[in-house]
Amino acid sequence: MPVCDVCGNDYDKSFELVSGGKRHVFDSFECAIQAIAPRCTHCGCRIIGHGMESNGEFYCCAHCAEQSGKVGLKDRKDTERPQTGHPAHR
């Protein structure tokens, strides 16, 4: 069985992730996040959502980007989102 690159667990439900042409094996999303997810340049948290990038620096949100002197970055659309999905979840 493949062994997790991060924790060394020999797990039958591990998965592979290819990033930048390099193959990685993980036994959990937790290990994948620790190994692959970038850190916010401002607050240092792991960016596991969309995040944003400016000149090679990554930010978890527009607030952190602004606090680092970046202007014009947004973490939301200017237009209203269309309502989709089940009505109970709107």
Number of strands: 4
The total count of helices amounts to 2
For the CA atoms, what is the radius of gyration?
A: 17 Å
**Major sheet: size, sense and barrel closure?**
2 strands, antiparallel
| Helix amount | 10-25%
Q: What percentage of amino acids are in beta strands?
A: 15-25%
> Which regions are unreliable across 5 or more consecutive residues at pLDDT < 50?
none
Mean pLDDT: 88
Topology:
Blueprint: E1 15-19, E2 22-26, H1 29-36, E3 52-54, E4 57-59, H2 62-67
Antiparallel strand pairs: 1-2, 3-4
Tell me what the structure shows.
The mean pLDDT is 88. The chain folds into two domains: 1-36, no CATH class; 37-77, no CATH class. It is an alpha+beta fold. The strands form two sheets. A two-stranded antiparallel ribbon has the order 1-2. Strands 3-4 form a two-stranded antiparallel sheet. A hairpin with a 2-residue loop joins β3 and β4. The protein has helices spanning 29-36, 62-67, and strands at 15-19, 22-26, 52-54, 57-59. It is elongated, with a radius of gyration of 17 Å. The chain contains two helices and four strands. The termini are far apart.
Can you describe this structure in just a few lines?
By secondary structure, the protein is an alpha+beta fold.
Name a few traits of the molecule.
90 residues, alpha+beta, two-stranded antiparallel ribbon, 18% strand
